[in-house]
Design a protein that fits this description.
This protein is of the alpha+beta class. The protein has two domains: 186 residues, no CATH class; 63 residues, no CATH class. The protein is built from six helices and eleven strands. The strands form three sheets. The chain has a six-stranded antiparallel beta sheet with strand order 4-3-2-1-8-9. A hairpin with a 3-residue loop joins strand 2 and strand 3. Bound molecules: zinc ion. The site of zinc ion has 7 residues, from loops.
C-alpha cells in the first residue's frame, strides 16, 4: 500500500495454512494406517489418496490468490463463484471462480449472509458457518442475481503481508464506507487510514523477543482473535496486532462479562 493508489488485498491465508496442516495430517494418517494394516495397501492408498486430492484441490481452488478481494480507490475486484465443497463440484464448471470488478459508483446494496452447514455424523451434528457477501449493482432489479463472494469460514480473511484480519462484518463496513465516499480522494484517505498492522514475520520476531513469562494471551472482540501481547508494556500499549485496538480482554468470557454489566 503506497503512494496515491493505496489498495487493501484480503486473502484467505489462515484457511490456506489450515489446508496445508490438513494435508500433513492426511499423509500422517495414511502412514499410521499402513503400519497397522499392511495387508490393505490398495484400500488405504485409495482412500487417503482421494482425501489428499480433495484437500490439495481446495487449497489451490478455494484459497488461491485468484480469490483475493482487492479494494482500490476505484472499486472492488473479486472472484464470483462457489466453494469447492464436494467431489461433485469438480464437474460443475459454473461453481468455478469468475473474476469480476465493480466501480464504487456502480455498487449498490452489500449483504452479509451466514450459511450454516449441518453434517450429521454418528456422533451428532457438526455445524460449520460460512460467510457469504452479496453485492448488487445500482439499478439492479430486485430479482437480479447478486454477485456472490465466498468470503470465509470462521477464520476470516487476512490483509496481504500483514497480521491484520478482517471478519466478514468488518469487511462489509469498509466496503460500504468506500462505496458511500464522495470522491476518489476521500477513498484514498479511507484506504490509507484503515489500520493495517505489521507483517506476520515482524510480529513473530516481537513475540520471540518477549520473555516467556511476559507473554500474555488476549482476546480481541472486534477481530474475534486470540493474540499474544507483551506483558512488560503498559496496559494501554498492549494492542491487538490485527486492528490496533487496545480494547482487548483476557479471554472471550471476560469480554462477555463486560457485555452483561453494560446490559
Ligand atoms: Zn483486533
Amino acid at each position: 500500500m503506497a503512494g496515491n493508489n493505496p489498495q487493501i488485498v484480503l486473502e484467505r491465508r489462515a484457511g490456506r495454512q489450515l489446508m496445508g496442516c490438513l494435508a500433513a495430517v492426511v499423509i500422517f494418517g495414511c502412514l499410521v494406517c499402513l503400519a497397522i494394516q499392511p495387508d490393505a495397501v490398495v484400500e488405504i492408498l485409495g482412500f487417503f489418496g482421494i482425501m489428499l486430492a480433495l484437500v490439495l484441490f481446495s487449497k489451490r481452488h478455494d484459497h488461491s490468490k485468484k480469490r483475493n478481494i482487492i479494494l482500490t480507490p476505484q472499486g472492488i475486484q473479486f472472484s464470483e463463484g462457489g466453494e469447492f465443497a464436494s467431489i461433485v463440484d469438480i464437474f460443475q464448471s459454473e461453481k468455478y471462480y469468475n473474476p469480476a470488478s465493480i466501480p464504487w459508483n456502480e455498487l449498490g446494496e452489500v449483504k452479509h449472509l451466514k450459511k450454516v452447514f449441518r453434517n450429521r455424523t454418528d456422533n451428532g451434528t457438526i455445524e460449520s458457518a460460512y460467510n457469504i457477501l452479496e453485492l448488487k449493482k445500482q439499478g439492479d432489479l430486485s430479482h437480479t442475481n447478486p454477485s456472490t463472494i465466498y468470503y470465509c469460514n470462521d477464520l476470516g480473511r487476512q490483509v496481504l503481508n500483514s497480521q491484520t484480519s478482517f471478519t466478514a462484518e468488518r469487511a462489509v463496513a469498509l466496503i460500504e464506507k468506500l462505496r458511500d465516499a464522495d470522491s476518489g480522494e476521500e477513498r484514498i484517505q479511507i484506504l490509507k487510514n484503515t489500520y493495517v498492522g505489521k507483517s506476520p514475520g515482524e510480529i513473530k520476531r516481537q513475540i520471540r523477543n518477549t520473555p516467556w513469562k511476559q507473554r500474555l494471551t488476549r482476546y480481541c472482540p472486534a477481530c474475534k482473535l486470540i493474540i499474544v501481547v507483551d506483558g512488560q508494556k503498559e496496559q494501554s500499549e498492549q494492542r491487538c496486532h490485527s486492528c490496533g485496538s487496545n480494547e482487548i480482554y483476557k479471554d472471550e468470557d471476560e469480554y462477555l462479562k463486560t457485555l452483561d454489566k453494560k446490559a
